[in-house]
Amino acid sequence: MSSAHTEVKWQMIADGHYCLSGRLERDTVSAFWRQREEWLPQQKAVTLDLSALERVDSAGMVMLLHLCQHIEQSGGQLTLCKMPEQLSTLLRLSHVDSLFAANIA
């Protein structure tokens, strides 16, 4: 079994519309978050398509929460769309789905 981790990729689809792909998990989140100055959008209204995520664990979920808060603190709004079922279930089981309620399309 390969120990290589699929990195997280942040890709612009259109102005203000982005796609997150790869594996958003404990082994990839910290490096990805440290590099946020490179990928964090400057728009006020940002839509993030999550359909290309292969896997999300609790660390990935927390990073998405921090991302929502970070964008809101700078006066913006992040909308998460096409959320994988695995992430929806994780939010529910962790009782944090209400924290994301305003951010889910």
Automatic annotation (TrEMBL):
<dbReference type="InterPro" id="IPR058548">
    <property type="entry name" value="MlaB-like_STAS"/>
</dbReference>
<feature type="domain" description="STAS">
    <location>
        <begin position="20"/>
        <end position="105"/>
    </location>
</feature>
<dbReference type="InterPro" id="IPR002645">
    <property type="entry name" value="STAS_dom"/>
</dbReference>
<dbReference type="InterPro" id="IPR052746">
    <property type="entry name" value="MlaB_ABC_Transporter"/>
</dbReference>
<protein>
    <submittedName>
        <fullName>STAS domain-containing protein</fullName>
    </submittedName>
</protein>
<dbReference type="InterPro" id="IPR036513">
    <property type="entry name" value="STAS_dom_sf"/>
</dbReference>
<dbReference type="Pfam" id="PF13466">
    <property type="entry name" value="STAS_2"/>
</dbReference>
